């Protein structure tokens, strides 16, 4: 889900809120993905952000919609682990 939202338009705050993860977690995703070459860094006002280099659905990966309940559960688990 996070990768599919990494379209160059969405910032960390939008993605973290959408998937129920922390700012640091999404930032680590971006750093890992940049290291393995599946995102590029693009300049935006005030900094930079990641942009996915391909659409997962082009490879047959179905991106599920996340429900509010799933998002809340994920947030509780992450907060417990941090």
How does the SSE layout of this entry go?
Layout: H1 2-5, H2 12-19, H3 23-36, E1 39-44, E2 47-52, H4 68-81
Antiparallel strand pairs: 1-2
Helix pairs in contact: 2-3
Description of the structure:
- The protein has helices at residues 2-5, 12-19, 23-36, 68-81, and strands at residues 39-44, 47-52.
- By secondary structure, it is of the alpha+beta class.
- The chain has a single domain, classed as Arc Repressor Mutant, subunit A (Orthogonal Bundle), CATH 1.10.10.
- A two-stranded antiparallel ribbon has the order 1-2.
- A hairpin with a 2-residue loop joins strand 1 and strand 2 (47-52).
- The two termini are 21 Å apart.
- The model has no long low-confidence stretch (mean pLDDT 83).
Explain briefly what this protein structure is.
With 82 residues, the protein is α+β, with helices and mostly antiparallel strands. It has helices at 2-5, 12-19, 23-36, 68-81, and strands spanning 39-44, 47-52. It has 4 helices and 2 strands; from the N terminus they run αααββα.
Overall number of strands: 2
Helix fraction, binned, reads 40-55%
Cα-to-Cα separation, first versus last residue: 21 Å
What number is the mean pLDDT?
83
Structural class determined from secondary elements: alpha+beta
- Could you tell me the radius of gyration in angstroms? 13 Å
Spatial order of the strands forming the largest sheet: 1-2
Our estimate of the beta-strand percent is 5-15%
Order of helices and strands, N to C?
HHHEEH
Q: What general outline do the C-alpha atoms trace?
A: globular
CATH fold annotation: Arc Repressor Mutant, subunit A
CATH class: Mainly Alpha
Low-confidence stretches: none
Largest beta-sheet details: 2 strands, antiparallel
How many DSSP H or I helices? 4
């Amino acid at each position: 889900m996070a990768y599919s939202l990494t379209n160059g338009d969405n910032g960390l705050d939008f993605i973290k809120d959408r998937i129920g993860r922390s700012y640091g977690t999404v930032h680590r995703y971006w750093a890992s993905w940049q290291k393995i070459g599946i995102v590029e860094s693009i300049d935006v006002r005030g900094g930079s952000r990641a942009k996915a280099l391909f659409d997962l659905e082009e490879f047959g990966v179905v991106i599920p919609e996340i429900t509010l309940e799933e998002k809340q559960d994920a947030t509780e688990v992450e907060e417990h682990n941090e």
